[in-house]
Write a structure and sequence with these properties.
The chain is of the alpha+beta class and about 100 residues long. The protein is built from two helices and four strands, in the order βββααβ. The protein has one domain: 2-Layer Sandwich (Double Stranded RNA Binding Domain), CATH 3.30.160.250.
């Protein structure tokens, strides 16, 4: 699943990352690459917490929806790919016979 992330940087600071589709989910990194990698880890951890709490997992909205928000005007955006299958439970094997 691809989640849009917004990246912000203040003078003399690391890159900060916010995930608009997951309120309260944020991360940071010294470089853009590290910030993106840390964002993937933060998303996985956040979603795992939602699952443990029995809460629904918000689906990511299109990037254009977030870009239209005045809250994120002029921000740098990236899409990060997150494999939620790793945390949504164990795979179960089933046998199906179809004529």
């Amino acid at each position: 699943m691809n989640y849009p992330i917004v990246i912000h940087k203040d003078h003399d600071s690391d890159y900060g990352v916010t995930v608009p589709d997951l309120p309260g989910c944020f991360s940071a990194g010294e470089t853009l690459d590290v910030a993106a990698a840390m964002a993937v880890e933060a998303i996985q951890t956040h979603v795992e917490g939602l699952l443990l709490g029995g809460d629904p997992i918000p689906l990511p909205q299109p990037l254009e929806v977030h870009q239209a928000s005045p809250e994120y005007a002029g921000s740098l955006w990236m899409l990060v790919s997150v494999d939620l299958g790793k945390i949504q439970g164990k795979a179960k094997r089933i046998n199906v016979t179809i004529p």
